[in-house]
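Quick one:
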Amino acid sequence: MIDTFDLIVKLTAAFGPSGQETEISRVISDLARPYADEISSDTLGNLIVHRKGSGPKLMFATHMDSIGLVVTYFEEDGTLRFGKLGGISPKEIINAPIRFSNGVMGAVKVHGKADEDKLSLDDLYLDIGAGSRGEAQSMVRLGDTAVYATVSMRAGNRIISPYLDNRVSCAVLLKALERLKKTEYDLYVVFTVQEELGLRGAKTAAYGIDPDFAIAVDVTGAYDYPGAPKAGSAVLGGGAAIKVMDSSVICHSAMVEKMSDLARQQSIKAQQDVLTRGGTDAGAIHQSRLGVVTGGISIPCRHSHTPTSIADLSDVESCIKLVTAFTENK
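Output:
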């Protein structure tokens, strides 16, 4: 498999907003195939990579969908009104370049009379270079979805990229599958759909697999930049963030303790992840059926859901090591 940075670039470049994960699912399936006994998809579209084992069922879940912009109206002048898929702040997407799955490019712009201190999506529009409603309708359709078209770049040991939430976690699990030598677990690595719309894929995947243990791998907020709110404990460069809680889950204490012990024993750089907002697939998984013993491993990330989110590659490496260590130590 390619190195970690190039892998993240490949994954972030794949189209896959919530509900339209076909392309990113195909990319991940091709990358995971050499390390799987079975690969399947369920009705909702979750990609399930299975490595057979005789022990308890262990499920890793990481969502492969991204946020997106969906066309809702064509203006007479050829500009587009749009809604959102997932959490998007109007202020953070002004002037962002965007692309549709058919290759049409454009940019997010703000209405000239809008108050930029009180922006809503109604104040924004997409410019795709069309000069009339008819021309715009010949280029895209009502309901088509666009994603950020910003490029990924490396700045020292950090990566600046769109959609680190959550393609960076997909990279973590793919690299862990590549490195995994042995496991007694009956292992399911699930790349879930529609997490950004309410953990929808994780809910059905957990019900179908019925795991004994589960770990959600996702980004977590790194609020260590100037003027940041104090909404979380994780920092860039602090290592793998072992989830304690967020607004969707209080992780099982046995999972927190085991991951913390493994990190100490194997000299894996780690930190605790205590988050007062947001959630992960763990929120749906731990409530499945009669309940699942669930934990979380997080990659600290600044400015998630913006066109230029930031993560540290040393944290990514620590997360790969922790996932591998957990899987190899029943």
